[in-house]
């Protein structure tokens, strides 16, 4: 079995090398003059703002749901001047009117390069990053926040971190998950940060973007000595989960007909890194004050974890209105039918 795993890793590594050798030069050679369809001014002022946020959105019908508006309001309330970037096929007038009060500007772009293509264009629109005290990158792949963003971000120890996120991940290579990232002046003024975005091509291959975008960003900054930190470090949460799952009573009383918690316990005992936002979602919210839950978890639950109690878990930790989540999930289901 060990030899098979080594062989599989070798094949996968060779595939990635070959893929990178083809995709990156092709993507750099093929460039639209601009991926921005339209730039629209919002109602919020950015004059003198030293905290900026890039918020990336996608909806196949160009709709802006209530949970997205809530996130924009929370970013603005935390003192961030928001640039809203939508990759949607359309951006109708009603959606623009809903977004405008909470943003400095709105960019409607072609959906090329996934979130990292949108982050790149949003960063370019912000201007001189050296003038900022903080830059947040956020996308609509999570519901929340379940707590006050301003309080959470003000608690970040800037003497120990140059960039910061909610959770980290050790799959592929070490990285901070990119649904919510904050960059501080040492990172924003570094050659590593600017160089990463300048070199980042627009690639329509999700696996490539994860490896070279999400993973690559952390790796590029760390290679230049910049320090990343997170709200809930993976191995700390994994150890807490290991102890919790060792309690047989908890495993027996949990509603888990698929035995996914037993499978999780086996994975943890083997020391295999996994996605905390999927496998540890409830512990992150209740014990680590994680302010978000992944949309994918509630939409498709790819890991098969017990999630039936998600509303109760959120309500136990927050006054967040879970009907915003229910409304969005219902909208997605209606459009599938």
TrEMBL record:
<protein>
    <submittedName>
        <fullName>Polysaccharide biosynthesis-like protein</fullName>
    </submittedName>
</protein>
<dbReference type="Pfam" id="PF05045">
    <property type="entry name" value="RgpF"/>
</dbReference>
<dbReference type="InterPro" id="IPR007739">
    <property type="entry name" value="RgpF"/>
</dbReference>
């Amino acid at each position: 079995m060990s030899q098979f795993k080594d062989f599989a890793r070798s094949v996968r590594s060779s595939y990635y090398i070959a893929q990178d050798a083809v995709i990156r030069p092709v993507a750099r050679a093929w460039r639209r003059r601009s991926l921005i369809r339209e730039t629209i001014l919002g109602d919020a002022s950015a004059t003198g703002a030293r905290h900026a946020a890039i918020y990336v959105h996608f909806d196949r019908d160009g709709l802006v749901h209530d949970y997205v508006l809530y996130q924009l309001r929370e970013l603005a309330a935390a003192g961030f001047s928001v640039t809203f970037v939508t990759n949607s096929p359309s951006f109708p007038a009603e959606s623009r009117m809903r977004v405008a009060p909470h943003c400095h500007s709105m960019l409607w772009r072609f959906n090329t390069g996934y979130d990292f293509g949108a982050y790149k264009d949003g960063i370019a629109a912000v201007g001189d990053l050296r003038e900022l005290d903080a830059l947040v990158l956020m996308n609509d792949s999570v519901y929340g926040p379940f707590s006050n963003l301003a309080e959470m971000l003000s608690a970040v120890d800037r003497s120990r971190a140059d960039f910061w996120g909610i959770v980290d991940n050790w799959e592929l290579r070490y990285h901070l998950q990119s649904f919510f990232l904050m960059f501080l002046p040492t990172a924003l003024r570094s050659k590593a940060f600017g160089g990463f975005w300048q070199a980042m091509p627009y690639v329509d291959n999700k696996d490539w973007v994860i490896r070279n975008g999400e993973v690559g960003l952390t790796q590029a900054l760390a290679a230049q000595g910049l320090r990343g930190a997170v709200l809930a470090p993976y191995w700390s949460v994994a150890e807490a989960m290991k102890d919790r799952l060792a309690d047989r009573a908890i495993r027996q009383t949990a509603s888990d007909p698929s035995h996914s918690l037993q499978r999780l316990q086996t994975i943890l005992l083997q020391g295999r890194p996994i996605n905390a936002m999927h496998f540890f979602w409830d512990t992150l919210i209740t014990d680590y004050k994680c302010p978000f839950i992944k949309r994918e978890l509630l939409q498709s639950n790819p890991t098969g974890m017990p999630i039936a109690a998600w509303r109760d878990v959120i309500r136990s930790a927050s006054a967040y209105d879970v009907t915003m989540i229910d409304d969005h999930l219902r909208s997605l289901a209606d459009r599938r039918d």
